[in-house]
Amino acid sequence: MNTKDPFLMGYSATAVAHPNIAFIKYWGNRDESLNLPSNGSISMNLGDLRAQTKVTFSSELSEDVLSINHIIAGHNAHQRMSAILDNIRQKAKISLYARVESILNFPTGTGIASSAAGFAALAKAAVHAAGLDFNEIEISRLARLGSGSACRSVPGGFVEWQKGESDNTSYATSIFSAEHWDLYDVIIVLQKTPKKVGSKAGHILANTSPLQASRVQDSSRRLEICRKAIKERDFSSLANIIELDSNMMHAITMTSNPPLLYWEAGSLELMHAVPKWRTEGLHVAYTIDAGPNVHLICQPEDVNEIKKRATALVNPQEILLSTIGGPAYIVRTK
Ligand code: DP6
Fold this sequence. Notes:
Blueprint: E1 2-3, H1 6-9, E2 12-17, E3 20-24, E4 29-31, E5 36-37, E6 41-45, E7 51-58, E8 65-68, E9 71-72, H2 75-92, E10 97-104, H3 114-129, E11 132-133, H4 136-146, E12 158-161, E13 172-176, E14 184-189, H5 199-206, H6 212-217, H7 219-231, H8 235-254, H9 265-279, E15 284-287, E16 294-298, H10 303-314, E17 318-323, E18 329-333
Parallel strand pairs: 8-10
Antiparallel strand pairs: 1-11, 2-7, 2-18, 3-6, 4-5, 6-12, 7-10, 8-9, 12-13, 14-16, 14-17, 15-16
Helix pairs in contact: 2-3, 2-4, 3-4, 7-8
The site of ligand DP6 has 16 residues, from α3 and α5.
């Protein structure tokens, strides 16, 4: 890792990152402050959804400032941002505060990993703006400090986050490129309002569930099945493992103390329908993050039929569509 003179490199950079949808989910930490997860996870980046984040280190600022879609962010997001910026300041040996402006083209706080995309873009842009010559693994580790799943939005395509032993060894890498398999995510938005209990609080509660230890213990087996299904482009095997993994994560949330019930009636209707649609020949599987919205992972030829059926079944507030996407990238430096 080289430290270059930030005066020569310029103090501002803008990066784009995509959110990701987990096939094998991250739920629970071994270390809350470093976001060291209890289990490894696998996800796919969502190329049509974007967070664009500009970071400017400036001597005119007396504190870090974060805005998301032009609105000044709250304490929680601010603290997570500072964890990344403090780390960068220390490594680049600069003491300047930063203005961070993030613009998203999809709804935030609804279980559509907006923080993953936002913190991945922030880490990528801030490293560049500070003139640090970090590789993808180092940027992934940094993004993890803002939001665990953000480390998976730094590399492209199908991505695996190794739980690792420590801060140094817990990061994500691409296991297959976006070109490997043309999958889509049809996101059935049942609720646009921010969720009541965010993932951060959910991770803290995970260990209060008597089921978490078995879920974690079984995770290497699920990761292996998922990797193999992606490698062989075996949709049926992928569908079975991602639905099982989603159900297992929600079994933890429901049996935590206090319990977290993320599903709404529409989520359950889709969970009943989707396996049936598969028996009728559609290549589709459901997975649900920490919110009621349902991600329908599918092959391109089935996208229109799936949208039609989901609309008739649950009358969603909105449907978002995304193909698989690439890594975080720099769009502008100044
Ligand atoms: C359910 O702590 O990374 O999406 O709340 O977006 O910061 P944010 O999430 P994070 O937890 C993500 C949990 C999950 C599962 C997953 O993406 O693996």
